[in-house]
Write a structure and sequence with these properties.
heterodimer, A: mainly alpha, globular, B: mainly alpha, two-stranded antiparallel sheet, 14 helices, 2 strands
């Protein structure tokens, strides 16, 4: 499967079931599982390279390990969720654009037809709005008034 | 299913408003307390949001460029799509806000055998959005007659223009029809367009239903359910609200309180939802910056002030010896060597 033939691809992109050929996914995008297979992910960095980078002054590349995205266990540190939320919080403070776009996307869907990743794959999750929505779902859950009030009610 | 939840939420709001309005004293809750709270939350929340945005720095110069930028004299600049001065930015922003220019340029793509991809202009979103926003604006401005006394002449002129077709009595306002139509079309688009249907959330459908509810109750009140809708009474209340001396004279029909309650819900909901795109469009760095990063250095506010700019001359001073050794041309040669001792 590693190598896809051009002829095959040029047919499947037009005929295969995808959002751009008229098929509609039966599952909500949140519930569609993510499948990692060779050819659709970037290779992980080798353990010794990460260790070397981490040893350099002023650089931080923690958690060097042997793994591939196809493994069930990615050997992530315990607090990986916290790392993501902290990272998002830091970026929201650093970038006005991120904050504004997290807050006021109206999901008009006009971005879908412009994105070559979506046009080429027909993968609904590759519509820019859904890529942003992935992050926005974290934002809504942890950074908005609704989430802080939920925390108040639940605690 | 998501639209069903949003629909039920609006129905529930209507039921709540109706229940409170028939209770004795409920009229003061719905007519005075809720509007005041709603206005306070709207103004406070809107300011809070804008201040939060303004506090976040803009590290990079990121205007959206959609045309030829300013370059050499004989290359024609696309001044609207790649503005390099404040005036050009203002012009682009003006067209964006008043004519939704970026939506006008929207395209739709289609895949064909080959494989071949085609793009065609798609103006539906632009048309529906324009219809919706302008009719909403006219209706909001028309409602200002409830808060000022005497009513200024330009408001009468606007009302006359809005009812120019002179259909029926009371005269049919075109904006009422346009708003209902606009909301219905935007909702229809969410259902029919399979991309948009897939990405739509409850918080996309809810404002549509809410605004449809507001428009519908308003239309019912003006044209059909006119019993107990005494406009003099209502104006007394609304003027009282803005002068902080509210009085509710005679009984006002429940439909008025339902209308008012839905408006208050919209005001409260507004600052915490995607409706904040009203403020966001002005604040968005991709739209309000000029593309002049080659003429003016954009300073990143979170740069470390201890890291000083390193000019080429300074770089050469630091490494001249090694550069000469490696045969790299230098602008200033090494000082003549003294004889070794």
């Amino acid at each position: 499967m590693a190598l896809v033939k051009l002829e095959q691809l040029s047919k499947s992109v037009v005929q295969g079931p995808s959002m751009s050929t008229g098929a509609v996914p039966t599952m909500e995008w949140m519930d569609v599982p993510v499948v990692f297979k060779e050819g659709n992910y970037a290779w992980q960095a080798k353990k010794e390279k990460v260790e070397y980078l981490d040893s350099q002054k002023g650089l931080e590349f923690p958690n060097a390990r042997e793994w591939t995205p196809e493994d069930d266990d990615w050997k992530l540190p315990e607090d990986w969720k916290e790392t993501i939320i902290k990272g998002l919080a830091e970026r929201l403070e650093k970038f006005r654009s991120l904050k504004i776009f997290m807050d006021c996307c109206v999901r008009c869907g006009a971005c879908a037809d412009k994105c070559h990743f979506f046009l080429g794959t027909g993968d609904p999750k590759n519509m820019p709005v859904l890529r942003a929505e992935l992050l926005r779902s974290v934002y809504r859950n942890d950074f908005t008034l609704a989430s802080s009030s939920r925390a108040c009610w639940c605690s | 299913m998501k639209y069903a939840y949003s629909f039920l939420a609006v129905i529930a709001l209507i039921a709540v408003a109706w229940l409170i309005s028939v209770f004795p004293g409920g009229q003061y809750v719905l007519g005075v307390a809720v509007p005041w709270v709603a206005i306070a939350i709207f103004i406070g929340g809107f300011c809070y949001r804008v201040v939060q945005w303004a506090k976040a720095p803009v590290p990079f110069s990121i205007p959206t460029t959609c045309g030829q930028g300013k370059s050499l004299d004989f290359i024609k600049q696309d001044k609207l799509d790649c503005p390099s001065t404040t005036a050009e930015v203002v012009a682009r922003m003006f067209l964006e806000i008043f004519t939704f220019r970026s939506l006008f340029r929207n395209t739709k793509s289609e895949l064909h055998e080959g494989p071949k991809i085609t793009y065609e202009s798609s103006k539906w979103l632009w048309l529906f959005a324009l219809l919706f926003h302008y009719s909403f604006l006219v209706i909001v401005v028309r409602h200002m007659r409830l808060f000022v006394n005497p009513v200024p002449d330009w408001l009468y002129a606007l009302e006359f223009g809005d009812g120019l077709l002179q259909i029926g009595a009371p005269t049919l306002y075109m904006s009422d029809v346009a708003l209902l139509l606009g909301v219905a079309l935007l909702f229809g688009r969410r259902l029919v367009n399979r991309h948009v249907r897939y990405i739509s959330l409850i918080n996309d459908y809810f404002p549509l239903f809410l605004i449809f509810g507001i428009a519908l109750t308003g239309v019912l009140m003006r044209y059909f359910l006119r019993t107990d809708i005494d406009i003099v009474n209502i104006k007394q209340l609304t003027v009282g609200l803005v002068t902080f001396q509210p009085t509710i004279g005679a009984d006002i029909g429940s439909i008025f309180y339902i209308h008012l309650f839905l408006v208050c819900t919209l005001l409260i909901y507004f600052p915490f939802s995607k409706l904040m795109h009203m403020g966001g469009v002005f604040m968005s760095p991709t739209r309000n910056m000029k593309n002049d990063s080659r003429a003016k250095r954009h300073i990143n506010p979170w740069n470390d002030p201890d890291i000083k700019p390193h000019s080429y001359a300074g770089y050469e001073d630091e490494f001249r010896e090694f550069m000469v050794e490696a045969g790299i041309p230098v602008e200033k040669e090494l000082p003549p060597k003294k004889d070794e001792e």
